[in-house]
Amino acid sequence: MSEKLRNRLTSYIGTAVIFMMVFGVMWQAMPVPVAHAVADTIVLQFYLDIDKDGEVDHIVLVFSENVTQCLYEAEDWTVNTSSEMNLSITGIDTSDPAADGNGVCDGTDAMLFLSVTSDADETNAATNPVISYDNDDADNSLQDALGNITNKTSLTISDQAAPALLTLTIQDSNSDGLIDTIVTGWSENVDTDDSAPPVLADFGTIVLPDGQNVSSATISDPAGVSPFVTLTSVVGQVTENTAVGSTIVSGMSNEWKDAASNATLSPDTNVSAVDQAKPVIVSSVPVASSSVQSRTNALSWTFSEAMATGGGWVHASEFTAAPDPGGWGTAVWSNGDTTVTTTHAPFLCITEYDITTDDTVIAAAVGEGGYTALDDSLTSPYSFTTMSCGTASTSATESTETTYEIDVLTPNGGETLAEGEEYEITWEASPEGMYYIDLFYLDGDDYIEIATNETNDGSYDWTVPADVEDSMIKVVWTDLAEELDSDTSDAAFNAGDTADDTADDTADDTAADDTTDEAVAPSGTGISPVTGEEEEITAVEPGDFITSPSFSTVYYVTESYERRAFISSAVFFTYADSYDEIMDVTDATLTELELGSNMLPNPGVVLVKVQSDAKTYAVDSNYDLRWITSEEIAIELYGDDWADYIIDVEATFFASFGAGDDVDSSDDITLVDMKTREEVSQ
């Protein structure tokens, strides 16, 4: 109960006590016997909104004597239904509803709290309700210390219900993804406590969707004639977000009153945030009005709030590209359904593309009715121009030439490569790091495919096949649509018959022995290292994942039939997608496969760190660790959830990696399909 109400009750009750004292003296001189020394009276009657939800919930009657019994009988009470405030009495509340020790009906106070229901969002009325009490049977429903309480008729109930703040409605009037208008809705007409124009401090603290506080605003003056107060030109939000998010108001205290001067300590107790801010497109890839854009990179859009994804993201429905490249893939939603990405067939060369979104079919997942549809007034349509395709070709939007050049570095002639050897093919491309590489080796008059669509990172580990003589390497640079440039070795490697006479000894550079045995798959039978008994040798092939009944370790079978142990299950899942890919072999089979070095994380699939080192590294194709030098670069490369790709590697295994160059920009590394820590932690 407010201090103002306490003071008013004290005044009324004090007057009632004086009246009772005077009336008592007069009564002593009167010879007529009575049941009461003083007739009970009601000194005050009013209604309250105790839980501050904008709905009257109690009528309070203050008697001249303490109340000792409160029995509720519905037929004893009537309400004037002609009042514009539709009240219904539902009972008597003896639970100390105002939490001040009153209304408990045990003879310690003179207050009676009637529980009522009323119209929602209404704490006053131009015509106050009128109630009557008529004890119409022999039992006394209400009693004071001296007997029953007499009937009361036509009690006009006054307004002591303070205005409650019901809604905080957010709007984005300029479609930039930042809240700039807030409308506060009250349970009745309001004014400031001092009747002066409102200031920001009258609202305590208003928190915006991104968690930032409102720092300034222009505020309308309700002047006691409106239940709405509007804040415009709102300043404070930093990050685009048109959902309710963190929106709340708190800390208000007696700054707002109604026409009866009622105010309360916390009118914001039950306020609800209402979303009338339409979703907008925060960013798109490619960027609007950009040029020299990739012909194969996916298109993506990021929105200011979570979107309804049930309709998908389909060309000629949610969006349209003109001209249409075709080949649209299934859209992928991410980042809490705020980002959508879709692939396509390669764009044409040096062509302007117009992208249009359809705001009639794109909508937010939640929001006030009529305010969920996309507002793309500032972002649709938008356009970008693709890059040129050929060597020494000229961009349509730039006067400088974009030239693609690639050169084979190794093998470039004169080398001797042994069958089964892991040889690093290297090349140099300018501009570096763009698009994809196809690799081939010369076999007689034909070029045989080694690999296609490899990342253009400057190297590829090639397992040299048998019978490679007088061969050359060819690298082809492609954007998946056209060949940009190509190059071959300057001269042949493995001239003559030297390939058959070269030892496969990558650990010993002296190559003292000029002959080597071709790796052969183990077969037949062998001795189990566990039981000592003879067992069948299980047939295995290079690329198999194997384990045996007596050992929990999982191994990878190499081209030379070595077994290389995975250092953890997380590392295993950088190569595989399921334990079902593991093949069981006999214990004897393991002894027939020479033990090689440990398997390190698959290059380009995860990021790694060691607990004793705060740095995060990418693993390149040479198993070199490349430090990602800043969070900004990590976000640019891997997105806001980049940390989800990090797995920990034991410090003892860090020495197995090489040291690569630091990643100082997003152009320093080429991305492949990544897996999150959760995906490799099965």
Task: Chart the SSEs and their pairings.
Elements: H1 3-28, E1 42-48, E2 58-63, E3 67-70, E4 77-79, E5 88-92, E6 111-117, E7 130-133, E8 142-144, E9 147-148, E10 152-156, E11 158-159, E12 165-171, E13 181-192, E14 205-207, E15 216-219, E16 226-235, E17 248-250, E18 256-257, E19 272-275, E20 281-285, E21 299-303, E22 319-322, E23 332-334, E24 339-342, E25 352-357, E26 382-385, E27 393-394, E28 401-402, E29 405-410, E30 422-430, E31 436-443, E32 446-455, E33 459-463, E34 473-478, E35 483-488, E36 525-527, E37 534-536, E38 545-548, E39 551-557, E40 562-565, H2 569-572, E41 582-584, H3 587-592, E42 594-595, E43 607-609, E44 617-619, E45 624-627, H4 631-638, E46 646-648, E47 658-659
Parallel strand pairs: 1-11, 12-19, 38-41, 40-42, 43-46, 45-47
Antiparallel strand pairs: 1-2, 2-6, 3-8, 4-7, 5-6, 7-10, 8-9, 12-13, 13-16, 13-18, 14-17, 15-16, 20-21, 21-24, 22-25, 23-24, 25-26, 27-28, 29-30, 30-33, 31-32, 31-34, 34-35, 36-37, 38-39, 39-40, 43-44, 44-45
Give the key terms.
47 strands; five-stranded mixed beta sheet; 4 helices; mainly beta; elongated; 682 residues
Describe this structure in words.
- This protein is mainly beta and 682 residues long.
- The strands form 13 sheets. Strands 12, 13, 15, 16, 18 and 19 form a 6-stranded mixed beta sheet that branches. It has a 5-stranded mixed beta sheet with strand order 5-6-2-1-11, covered by helices on one side.
- A hairpin with a 4-residue loop joins strand 34 (473-478) and strand 35 (483-488).
- The longest helix has 26 residues, at 3-28.
- It starts with a helix and ends in a 23-residue tail after the last strand.
